C-alpha cells in the first residue's frame, strides 16, 4: 500500500531551478549524480520504489508456503520498503546540491536552518539576523520566485531554538553529510524504529511504524526539505516512553519536541491528562513537569538572554502576523471569498484561537479524562492540531503529517499494554 500510494508522487513537484544550475558530480555522492545523468531522475527513484513493491509481493507469495516467519524477517522487509522510498531521493538531492551551488536542489527552510546553525557556531544569534546577504537571497531567483514578492524569511528565523542548535551540531560534519536533510531523513526513519518501542503486538506496530516513516508526506519532506521529522520523532518517543512507564524520560523527550517545533506544544495538555489517567501521583507529575521545563528553558535561555524580542518576533509573531496567507485553511477561504483583501493584511487568528480552538481543545481534554483510556490523548491531539491548522494564517500540505502521526499514536496506544499501576512510590520511576 505504501509503495502504491507513494511511488506515483515520489520526487514530484520539485523547485523549478531557473536559471539551470551547472552540475559537476563530485564528492561522496558524485557517483549517484552521475548515474542519474546529473538531474533529479524520477525514473530511477520510482523504479526502485516499484522494485520494493515487487519484493513485498514475492514475500507475500512465499507466505503460502511458509506461513510462519521470524520477527526479524518481517522487520527487515519493512526496513527495505521504508529505506527504498525514503533514502535514494534524499541522497540524490543532496548530491545534486553538492555538485552545483548551496542554493540549488534544496529548500529555503532547511537552507536557512543550516545558515542558523553556522551562525551559532560563529557565536552569532540567528534571531533578528539579516539573511539578505547569507546566500539564502540567491535561492528565490534560482526558483524563479516573483521579484516583487516580499521574502519575509530573509528577516526572520521561524524555528524554535532546538532546530538551530541541532543544525549547529549537524553542520560540524563534513560535506555533503552536513546537509540538514540527511538529519531529517534519519529522524524520519527513526519514526519507524520509535513505533517498535510501544509494548504492542508486532502485527500492529510494524505497519504503523512503516506508515510513520514512508507515507507520501514524510518521504517528500525528507528530500524536499521540510523539517518536521526531528520534532515528530521526539514526540513519538515521548508517548512510547510514557506508556512504558519511563515518565521523566518521556517528559524530557516532549521538551525536546517543543524546542524543535512549535506545533508540539499542542500535545502537552493531552500528555498531562494521560499522566493523570495512569494514576500518577501529583508530586510525580510535578517532577516530570520540572524535567520538561528544564529541557525547554535550557534550550531557550541563551536566546532569551541575547534578544527576547527577536526570538518572539521571529517565531511567534512571524507565523501569526508576518507571513503571507497561504495554504488551504480558513484564511485562504476568506481571502478567495473576498472577506480579506490582502495576503499580507490582518487575519483574526488570535480571536479564532481563543473562541474556537481553545473551547474545542478543552472539551477534548475533558472527554479524554472521562474515558479513563490512554489512546484518546493522541486522538485528541490529532483533532486539536487539525483544527488549529485550519484556523491559522498558514496551512501547508506538510502540516498534515502531524494529525497523521497523532492518529497512528492513537492506534499504538489502544493496542499497547498499560504500565503497572505502581506509582505510589515515585522513586520507582525515577529513571
Describe the 3D structure:
With 431 residues, the chain is an all-alpha fold. 63% of the residues lie in helices and 1% in strands. The chain has helices at residues 2-6, 30-35, 42-65, 71-98, 108-121, 139-142, 161-170, 180-195, 202-214, 216-224, 229-243, 247-260, 267-277, 282-306, 308-322, 330-337, 349-371, 375-391, 401-415, and strands spanning 326-327, 394-395. Strands 1-2 form a two-stranded parallel sheet. Helix 8 (180-195) packs parallel to helix 11. It is globular and about 60 Å long. 45% of the residues are buried. Mean pLDDT is 91; it is low at 424-431.
Give a nutshell description of this structure.
With 431 residues, this protein is mostly helical.
Descriptors:
globular; 2 strands; 431 residues; mainly alpha; 63% helix
Which of globular, elongated, flat, extended, rod-shaped describes the shape? globular
What is the assembly state of the chains in this entry? single chain
Question: What's the mean pLDDT score?
Answer: 91
Cα end-to-end separation: 39 Å
> Helix coverage percent of residues?
55-70%
Order of helices and strands: HHHHHHHHHHHHHHHEHHHEH
- Counting DSSP H or I runs of 4 or more residues, the number of helices is 19
Output the structural class: mainly alpha
Largest sheet: 2 strands, parallel
Proportion of strand residues: under 5%
Spatial order of strands in the largest sheet? 1-2
Radius of gyration, in Å, reads 22 Å
Low-pLDDT stretches are: 424-431
User: Tally of extended strands?
Assistant: 2
Amino acid at each position: 500500500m505504501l509503495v502504491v500510494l507513494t511511488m506515483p508522487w515520489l520526487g514530484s513537484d520539485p523547485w523549478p531551478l531557473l536559471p539551470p544550475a551547472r552540475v559537476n558530480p563530485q564528492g561522496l555522492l558524485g557517483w549517484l549524480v552521475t548515474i542519474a545523468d546529473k538531474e533529479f531522475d524520477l525514473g530511477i527513484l520510482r523504479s526502485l520504489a516499484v522494485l520494493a513493491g515487487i519484493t513485498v509481493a514475492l514475500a507475500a507469495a512465499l507466505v503460502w508456503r511458509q506461513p510462519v516467519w521470524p520477527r526479524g524477517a518481517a522487520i527487515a522487509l519493512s526496513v527495505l520498503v521504508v529505506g527504498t522510498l525514503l533514502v535514494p531521493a534524499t541522497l540524490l538531492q543532496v548530491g545534486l546540491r553538492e555538485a552545483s551551488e548551496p542554493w540549488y536542489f534544496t529548500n529555503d527552510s532547511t537552507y536557512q536552518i543550516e545558515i542558523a546553525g553556522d551562525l551559532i557556531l560563529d557565536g552569532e544569534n540567528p534571531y533578528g539576523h539579516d539573511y539578505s546577504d547569507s546566500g539564502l537571497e540567491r535561492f528565490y531567483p534560482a526558483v524563479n520566485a516573483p521579484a516583487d514578492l516580499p521574502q519575509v524569511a530573509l528577516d526572520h528565523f521561524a524555528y524554535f531554538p532546538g532546530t538551530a542548535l541541532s543544525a549547529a551540531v549537524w553542520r560540524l560534519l563534513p560535506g555533503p553529510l552536513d546537509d540538514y536533510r540527511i538529519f531529517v531523513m534519519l529522524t524520519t526513519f527513526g519514526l519507524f524504529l520509535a513505533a517498535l518501542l510501544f509494548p504492542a503486538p508486532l502485527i500492529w506496530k510494524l505497519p504503523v511504524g512503516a506508515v510513520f516513516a514512508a507515507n507520501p508526506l514524510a518521504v517528500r519532506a525528507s528530500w524536499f526539505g521540510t523539517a518536521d521529522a526531528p520534532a515528530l520523532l521526539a514526540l513519538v518517543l515521548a508517548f512510547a516512553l510514557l506508556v512504558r512507564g519511563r515518565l521523566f524520560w518521556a517528559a524530557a523527550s516532549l521538551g525536546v519536541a517543543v524546542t524543535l517545533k512549535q506545533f508540539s506544544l499542542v500535545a502537552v495538555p493531552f500528555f498531562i491528562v494521560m499522566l493523570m489517567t495512569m494514576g500518577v501521583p501529583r508530586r510525580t507529575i510535578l517532577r516530570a513537569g520540572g524535567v520538561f521545563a528544564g529541557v525547554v528553558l535550557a534550550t531557550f535561555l541563551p536566546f532569551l538572554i541575547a534578544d527576547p524580542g527577536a526570538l518572539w518576533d521571529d517565531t511567534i509573531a512571524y507565523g501569526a502576523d508576518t507571513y503571507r496567507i497561504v495554504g488551504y485553511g480558513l484564511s485562504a477561504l476568506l481571502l478567495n471569498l473576498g472577506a480579506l483583501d490582502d495576503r499580507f493584511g490582518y487575519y483574526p487568528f488570535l480571536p479564532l484561537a481563543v473562541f474556537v480552538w481553545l473551547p474545542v481543545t478543552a472539551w477534548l481534554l475533558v472527554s479524554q479524562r472521562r474515558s479513563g483510556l490512554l489512546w484518546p490523548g493522541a486522538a485528541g491531539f490529532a483533532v486539536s492540531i487539525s483544527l488549529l491548522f485550519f484556523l491559522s494564517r498558514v496551512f501547508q500540505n506538510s502540516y498534515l503529517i502531524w494529525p497523521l502521526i497523532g492518529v497512528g499514536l492513537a492506534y499504538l496506544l489502544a493496542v499497547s499494554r498499560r504500565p503497572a499501576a505502581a506509582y505510589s512510590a515515585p522513586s520507582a520511576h525515577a529513571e
